[in-house]
Amino acid sequence: MKACGGAYSPQTRRKHFISGPQWAAGYRGDALFYAPTRQAIGFEEIIRRYGELGVGYWCTHDSDVIVTEALGKEEQWGVIERIKTALKENGVQCSMISTETFHHAVWATSPASEAPEVREYAKFRLKNMVKLGHELGAQFAVYWPGSLGYYVQGAVEETNTLRWYAEGLNAACQADIEIAQHRGAPTLKHCLEAKPFEPQAEILLPTTDAMLGFINSGLLTHPEMVGVNPEYLHELMWGAAPRAALARALLCGKLWHFDINDGYRLKHDVDIAIGLVNPLDWLNVLVLLRSHGYQGPFNLDFKPPRTTSNSGVWEVSFPTAVDRFITLWEMAGEVISDPVIQEATQALNAGGGAADPHDAEAVTAGYRELLTLHELIAHRLVQILLGLHRGRTYSV
Ligand code: 3MF
Ligand code: MG
Ligand code: MG
């Protein structure tokens, strides 16, 4: 790592709204076909390590830190006190909390199960999550529905299931309004996260666009409290251009939270760290977000690979992910103020000026030469990414 050079200081890292999930650092390398390759670590160590690195925010699922049986019971508050102490001692804030609605057997039919008692239990967990979020000072609640879908067709009726899912969210928003009023605090920003496949074969809300439609479906009692948490790879997985998916959410005023990672199109959720697969696309994504003044968190929702050791998680995985993000963010600033890109963009936007704008031939002829600038801009972006715009050339 020393030989690689180029690391940012913890102080610089803390200037960004970067959050580290409990589950990302705690991931032991296990999956359906994999045994764990790392030892378990608890929230105290994770929060301390994030603080040392300069990751100023931490987030968690309820059951990452409190055993399922204790959730909603008196004993959960002891854990919350320990978390608050760890956060304070390390200068880290809790930015977001989430209800785990995918791992435990109770969610086999999703939180919007046809069984009313499962839905009742889901509401209990969601309302409790809101309470925990307020106690920890979180600003955001994120909902990845997980098992909202099916493996085999026929038993699950989609419209009922979506109505039931909305009832859970409505209960969480209502609880939030009451708790916020009681505490004299603002309500949380509730963000829906879509994923196109896994852990079900068919998913009822598979994309961020589907989430935006759901928010505006009329099923939510407080649509103004609900936005989206797109995940870069979740959009890429279904074949989307993540930047276009983010643009649609931006236009709706709903881009409130963002899970950052990387991976491949039409593959499973490999959760690789930001910029290791698609650095050019990432640069473009950050140009969009910087130019639109996105102020929300950048949440490091990746998984250190199985080949990385326990110490490697902290020595390599997290610092390099954070630093690639910061470098790409700074490069995005360079792109926005780059004179070549600015001039080319202005020329394109000014158009070619046809004598008769109702004449297709004249319009085409007037604009024809300008369109070469599309490729020039693409080249310039690669130059900025590779540092070639600073006069760096390679020769044999
Ligand atoms: C799954 C995910 C989730 C969500 C999380 C939201 C385990 O692919 O991305 O991470 O981000 O549940 O809080
Ligand atoms: Mg995610
Ligand atoms: Mg994911």
**Average pLDDT over all residues:** 97
**Count, helices:** 15
β-strand percent reads: 5-15%
- The parts where pLDDT drops under 50 for at least 5 residues are none
Name the helicity range: 40-55%
The CA-CA distance between the termini, in Å, is: 28 Å
Provide the gyration radius in Å: 23 Å
Q: What topology, given as strand order, has the largest sheet?
A: 8-6-4-3-2-1-10-9
* Molecular shape: globular
What string gives the helices and strands in order? HEHHEHHEHEEHEEHEHHEHEHHHH
Tally of strands: 10
Present as ligands are: 3-O-methylfructose in linear form, magnesium ion
Class inferred from helices and paired strands = alpha/beta
Main beta sheet: 8 strands, parallel
